[in-house]
Design a protein that fits this description.
- The complex is a heterodimer.
- Helices cover 20% and strands 42% of the residues of chain A.
- In chain A, helix 1 runs parallel beside helix 2 and helix 3 runs parallel beside helix 5.
- Chain A is globular, with a radius of gyration of 23 Å.
- In chain A, strands 1, 2, 3, 4, 5, 6, 7 and 8 form an 8-stranded mixed β-sheet that branches.
- By secondary structure, chain A is of the alpha+beta class.
- Chain A folds into 2 domains: 217 residues, PmbA/TldD fold (2-Layer Sandwich), CATH 3.30.2290; 236 residues, no CATH class.
- Chain B is an alpha+beta fold.
- Among the domains of chain B are: 88 residues, PmbA/TldD superfamily (PmbA/TldD fold, 2-Layer Sandwich), CATH 3.30.2290.10; 114 residues, no CATH class; 80 residues, no CATH class.
- Chain B is 23% helix and 36% strand.
- Chain B contains 10 helices and 20 strands.
- In chain B, the strands form 4 sheets. In chain B, strands 1, 2, 3, 4, 5, 6 and 7 form a 7-stranded antiparallel β-sheet that branches.
- Chain B is globular and about 70 Å long.
- The chains are: A alpha+beta, B alpha+beta.
- At the A-B interface, strand 1, strand 2, strand 3, helix 2 and helix 3 of A face strand 2, strand 3, helix 2, strand 7 and helix 9 of B.
């Protein structure tokens, strides 16, 4: 992607004014996007993203310059602009490159760029038909197929010169159920770091279509969720978004390193109930949030975040590591070359526990069973989080009595982690896009079924 | 590397030779500057120059799409092949058309701007002053989450094989935005606060007032607590109302309506909101951040009331949705950078009423003033209109603030909310985007908070 001599020349220029570290992130990404609405293939589009970002560090200060012009002249111009913003730093002597390629080509059997769009369209048709078949009240189905092949090259003044190929494929189904007066929605979005072979093993488009439509249909006939403070059981899979929001973001160096997280300075302390252990693992083969290297060229890791309730690790990028005087953890990520990297999650989940799932609901009294979650957000400084319940059921005296809609869950991360009183035995994961300081990136969330002894449930 | 002009010319020629006719290219470039101050030092500094190009074109009556950020010769071959493959598969009933252009377009005067001339040092100096002011206004607000300043300028160009050739600045006059995020602490209470500013003149920024406002925002929230669950009278302050309108603006799109994703389908001429509600879409708003004289299909834009005195007068259209409904486009086509043409509002805002916020509060007497909604991307459903959102604000008694409120959710339905609006305030604000709102008295909404 880039000649080593040019890379060395660009890096040397970038640290000429006293920067103590410089890095080139060069990217070429081909993406395909197919959308189907109203039973018709509406758009088939191909996009090619191409550009590079040059980062210069001077202690804990960062300068980032990016461009689409990846010619030698374009990169030298970026390096000069970045250098101009740094003056009188300690400087550094660039280390000679040691090359390695992180991409293991055999992992992807059917590269999406080699698969005809007509075959991709068939998957949408299958999902759409299955969703429509669920009920005549399904009035609209939007299906979406996306794949990306991202080739990156990362070179820095510490001798890193590494390339990687990230291949991802995802199907999205959104169904709308309507009785003419009201609309309700259901959605599914399975994906993985795989090529088109994902449809042989991981994704059944018809099953995804049915699940999305069934959720919309159930919610159309659901009552509004009661508001108040109740025990809440949260199912596995995308339910893991509660950990992602309530805790995960607050363990990223992005907030911890500046003393802006409610968990700053709490390593070794009990921050969750002792039944809770959690991991952020970028090494699981083929998972949506997995990579071979992070976006700073670091090897992937499996990172234990919480062990039996005790905080054992933060997620740390290079800049964060300088502020915190701790080693980086392979957590530097970015949406693309238009974003400087920062500490982010990969595949983050609560580990399997020992509790029985049926008992959890049977002994909860009156409360909410959140079977399927929507997205959420958090303020890491105060720990305040919120997330939406996409498919919920009301529980009375330990029995599921009816579906409820429009529920949201709010709370403060630190308090909620301590109130988890059951962790089930089977952990499952689901895919999401996480937006934060370095853009929108693919992540997995996951957990077994868990119970929180009390949470504020928003409803009507 | 090709210059944009040569690339566009060569691409359109190659497309025609490959049987893609007509074809249209949209080209956009953008220069941006962005810096952050953290605890007195400029810890992030970012500069960029980017460009991208999208092409759409017709093969055998079907439209294909592709886009690129690389402008080498390979890119031309890739785009042509991709458009052909895409067109061969397309099967939508109503195909997008390529438009030769209008005889005349409205004119828009560019607002005065110093974005092009303000230097980096000048911007960094403002940034340091913003953060300093933010941390020296209130003794309980001494921790920074970072202050920022950004400037951006860009152009959009459309060229097609039917003779269309248009270009404009985006946004017109460029934009500067800045602000501060701070943390307030007092005893056990930890809160965050912020203030944002957007405009076109770096030299108009008053860094001391931006910083002080951020500190006051945080300080005003110290020791906030929930209220008991129940139904409350409520005024939604302009910034929160703007975020709510932005989340639900898709319901006014004819594209959403035709796809049964909006409950406003076929309801033109009906009363859908309270008498005091007029919702404007004004692409010709002087100084508007989404002002433009032509849309993504090259149609002339025009000013219209979407809701006029509570009555839905029109949905927003592009050429395809308009043709399907037998009406004229409203000039609201969006997209075109290598994907399908969609519909989008331009400068969309509730027309301000007579009363300012203190008057609205005084008329409400007792209730809640909501100043912030969190998690709109997940807690609000633009298709059903339902929302249930983590919110914060103030408890109001006798028209005055009693105390700050946090850890509550506010739930309702946007369609219903439009009908129950009691008054629209006079304090309209856009803050650097295409969505604007004054503070709005929304009647009563359901709140979930502490155990009753």
């Amino acid at each position: 992607m880039l000649d080593r001599n040019i890379a060395a020349e660009v890096l040397a220029r970038a640290v000429q004014t006293g920067g103590d570290f410089a890095e080139i992130f060069l990217e070429d990404r081909i993406g395909h996007n197919l959308t189907m609405r109203s039973r018709k293939l509406e758009t088939v589009s191909t996009s090619r993203a191409h550009g590079a970002g040059i980062r210069v560090l001077d202690g804990t200060r960062a300068v980032y310059v990016y461009t689409n012009d990846t010619s030698r002249e374009g990169l030298m111009d970026c390096a000069a602009q970045a250098a101009a913003a740094v003056q009188g730093g300690a400087g550094c002597r660039p280390v000679a490159f040691s090359h390695w390629s992180a991409a293991r080509a055999e992992e992807v059997r059917l590269l999406p760029t080699d698969v005809k769009a007509a075959l991709k369209a068939e998957k949408l048709r299958a999902a759409e038909a299955a969703a429509r078949a669920v009920s005549p009240e399904i009035v609209q189905v939007n299906c979406n197929y996306v794949d990306t092949v991202q080739d990156v090259l990362i070179a820095n003044t510490e001798g890193t010169f590494v390339t990687d190929r990230r291949v991802r494929t995802r199907l999205g189904v959104a169904a709308v159920a309507s009785d003419g007066h009201e609309n309700q929605t259901g959605s599914e979005g399975p994906g993985a770091s795989m090529g088109f072979e994902i449809f042989d093993s991981r994704i059944d488009p018809e099953a995804s279509g049915r699940r999305a439509a069934a959720m919309a249909h159930t919610m159309l006939h659901a009552d509004a969720c009661p508001a108040g403070v109740y025990p809440v059981v949260i199912d596995g899979g995308f339910g893991g978004v509660i950990f992602h929001e309530a805790c995960g973001h607050s363990l990223e160096a992005t907030s911890v390193a500046y003393g802006l997280s409610e968990f700053s300075g709490k390593l070794g302390q009990q921050i969750a109930a002792s039944c809770v252990s959690a991991v952020d693992d970028g090494t699981i083969p083929g998972e949506w949030g997995s990579m071979h290297i992070d976006d700073e060229g670091m090897p992937m890791t499996r990172l234990q975040l919480i062990e039996n309730g005790v905080l054992v690790n933060y997620m740390i990028d290079k800049l964060g590591s300088r502020r915190m005087n701790m080693a980086p953890t392979g957590s530097g990520r970015r949406q693309d070359y238009t974003w400087a990297p920062t500490s982010r999650m990969r595949n983050t989940y609560i580990c399997p526990g020992t509790d029985d799932e049926a008992e959890m609901i049977a002994t909860m009294g009156t409360g909410l069973y959140a079977k399927s979650m929507g997205g959420g957000s958090v303020n890491p400084t105060t720990g305040e989080f919120n997330f939406a319940v996409a498919e919920g059921y009301w529980v009375e005296d330990g029995r599921i009595v009816r579906p409820v809609r429009g529920a949201s869950l709010i709370g403060k991360g630190g308090e909620v982690l301590m109130r988890i009183d059951r962790v089930g035995k089977t952990m499952t994961m689901a895919q999401g896009m996480c937006g934060s300081r370095s853009g929108s990136i693919p992540v997995n969330v996951g957990q077994p079924m868990i119970r929180v002894s009390s949470l504020t449930v928003g409803g009507k | 590397m090709n210059t944009p002009d040569t690339f566009i010319t060569r691409l359109l020629r190659a497309a025609k030779e490959a049987g893609i006719d007509p074809a249209e290219v949209t080209y956009a470039d953008q220069d941006s500057f962005n810096a952050r101050a953290m605890e007195g030092s400029i810890d992030q500094y970012e500069v960029s120059a980017t460009r991208a190009l999208g092409i759409r074109g017709t093969v055998n009556g079907r439209m294909g799409y592709a886009s690129t950020e690389a402008f080498d010769d390979d890119a031309i071959a890739m785009l042509v092949e991709a458009v052909k493959e895409s067109a061969a598969l397309a099967e939508g009933e109503d195909q997008d058309e390529i438009f030769a252009g209008e005889e005349a377009y409205p004119t828009l005067e560019a607002p005065e701007s110093d974005i092009g001339s303000a230097g980096a040092e000048e911007k960094l100096d403002l940034l340091r002053r913003i953060e300093k002011a933010a941390l020296s206004t209130d003794p309980r607000v001494t921790k920074s989450q970072g202050a920022y300043i950004s400037t951006g300028r860009g152009t959009v160009r459309m060229v097609n094989s039917l003779g269309l050739n248009l270009s404009r600045e985006a946004p017109l006059g460029g934009m500067v935005s800045c602000g501060a995020f701070v943390v307030g602490r007092d005893g056990d209470s930890v809160v965050t606060g912020a203030k944002h500013f957007a405009g076109r003149k770096v030299r108009e920024i008053d860094p001391e007032s931006v910083g002080a406002d951020a500190a006051e925002d945080a300080a005003s929230m110290l020791h906030a607590s929930p209220v008991s669950s129940g139904v409350y009278r409520m005024i939604i302050r302009r910034e929160a109302m703007r975020s709510l309108l932005g989340t639900f603006r898709g319901i006014f799109s004819a594209e959403s309506a035709q796809q049964k994703m909006s409950l406003l389908a076929g309801r033109e001429g009906e009363k859908i909101a309270a008498d005091c509600v007029t919702l404007m879409d004004d692409p010709l708003l002087p100084g508007g951040f989404a002002s433009m004289t032509f849309d993504a299909e090259g149609s002339a834009t025009r000013t219209k009331a979407v809701i006029d005195g509570g009555v839905l007068t029109t949905l927003l259209h592009n050429r395809k949705t308009a043709a399907k409904q037998g009406v004229a486009t409203t000039g609201n086509a969006s997209g075109g950078m290598g994907g399908a043409i969609h519909v989008s509002s331009t400068n969309l805002f509730f027309r301000p009423g007579e009363k300012d916020l203190p008057e609205l509060l005084s008329e409400m007497d007792d209730g809640l003033l909501i100043t912030y909604f969190a998690g709109l991307h997940s807690g609000a459903n633009p298709i059903s209109g339902d929302f249930s959102l983590l919110s914060s604000g103030y408890l109001i008694a006798n028209g005055h603030i009693v105390r700050p409120v946090e850890q509550i959710t506010v739930a309702g339905n946007f369609y219903q909310l439009l009908k129950e609006i009691r008054a629209v305030g006079s304090d309209l604000e856009f803050l650097g985007g295409g969505i604007g709102s004054p503070s709005v008295d929304v009647g009563a909404l359901s709140v979930s908070g502490a155990e009753a």
